[in-house]
Amino acid sequence: MTQKITKKEKDFSAWYNDLVYFSELADYSPVKGCMVIRPNGYAIWERIREILDKMLKETGHQNAYFPIFIPESFFKKEAEHVEGFSPECAVVTIGGGKELEEKLMVRPTSETIMYSMYAKWINSYRDLPLLINQWANIVRWEMRTRLFLRTTEFLWQEGHTAHATYQEADEEARLILDIYEDLITNYLAIPVIKGTKTETEKFAGAYKTYTIEAMMGDKKALQSGTTHHLGQNFSKVFNVRFQNKEGKMEYVWQTSWAVTTRLIGAIVMVHGDNKGLILPPNIAPTQVIIIPIWSNDEERRKVIEAADKIESAFKNRVLVKTCLLYTSDAADELDGVDLGGRRII
């Protein structure tokens, strides 16, 4: 990295911003509070998404997509939920040049829009559990923003499930928390602590919120993922019911859970140093950098053949730098090779 970055020990916040910016992970948007995720940063998110999506599908979850616009009346049905999100909501009042009959909330989270559909889809115990995840963008009107960590719009996945019993819903919330722990610990190389949020910190409308917290380089904790046991709060509001085996009607028990592009910020704060960004190999877009070195045509042929074999083994996660070196001290010349500001642990 040729740009000069602020020393981590001098100003952690400025160091973080420099690292994100100069590593070309993200840039500041013309829209206040929003960010542009650049190819380097988006490639990391794609890798995280690839790993987590596989984990979720292996445990029976399916992907779907729901609208970004949510009728205001849906939010007002669940008092605690609307109270928790009202200050953060962006609201659409005009569409097609006309005043809308009903205001539309730009998705801050999808419980209400999804559960209105679940009420149509769930009729019997045979329809349960319903395990749905979506990859989407979210808008929350933040006053103080930082790239990846807190922005007005961000990317995430959000899971929403419905179950026949309290116990099944609780087991689901705990299962997903274990999956998040696996992702962040074993792929992002960040240790986490699992716990339960206090009553004042839990998700708006939830019965219970589970969380994983990680220690950053400035010795502050970062909430890195949450799962929520929603009880029957939303199912009663949206009339999500099923006929049990005895033929009686019951309300479903629900969960919701999410991780976001905040994880990229966590990677920077945990692994980066004063020389630049460091990425754990499991999520690094470029895992291996091959620098062929030869001194004559015969060596060139052999070296390129060997480099091609290594490249094919790593498929698309190799950056090949062709470098013809005649000097005996190759290390000196390699010191000037541009690695794009990225290093791998």
Question: What's the helix and strand layout?
Answer:
Blueprint: H1 12-22, E1 26-28, E2 35-37, H2 39-58, E3 62-63, E4 69-71, H3 72-76, H4 79-85, E5 90-95, E6 98-106, H5 111-121, E7 130-139, E8 153-163, H6 166-187, E9 192-196, E10 208-215, E11 221-231, H7 233-237, E12 241-243, E13 249-251, E14 253-260, H8 262-271, E15 277-279, E16 288-290, H9 297-313, E17 318-320, H10 330-334, E18 342-344
Parallel strand pairs: 3-7, 15-18, 16-17
Antiparallel strand pairs: 1-2, 4-6, 5-6, 7-8, 8-14, 9-10, 10-11, 11-14, 12-13
Helix pairs in contact: 2-6
Describe the structure.
The chain is of the alpha+beta class and 345 residues long. The protein has 10 helices and 18 strands. Strands 3-7-8-14-11-10-9 form a 7-stranded mixed β-sheet, with helices on both faces. Helix 2 (39-58) packs across helix 6. It is globular, with a radius of gyration of 24 Å. The model is unreliable at 322-345 (pLDDT under 50).
Q: What brief labels describe this structure?
A:
three-stranded antiparallel beta sheet, alpha+beta, 345 residues, disordered C terminus
Helical segment count: 10
Strand content: 25-35%
Task: Quote the average pLDDT.
Answer: 88
Termini Cα gap: 16 Å
What structural class do helix, strand and pairing data support? alpha+beta
Helix content: 25-40%
Strand ordering within the main sheet = 3-7-8-14-11-10-9
Oligomer: single chain
How many strands, what sense, and barrel or not for the largest sheet? 7 strands, mixed
The outline comes out as globular
Which regions are unreliable across 5 or more consecutive residues at pLDDT < 50? 322-345
Return the string of H and E elements.
HEEHEEHHEEHEEHEEEHEEEHEEHEHE
User: How much is the radius of gyration in Å?
Assistant: 24 Å
* Count of strand segments: 18
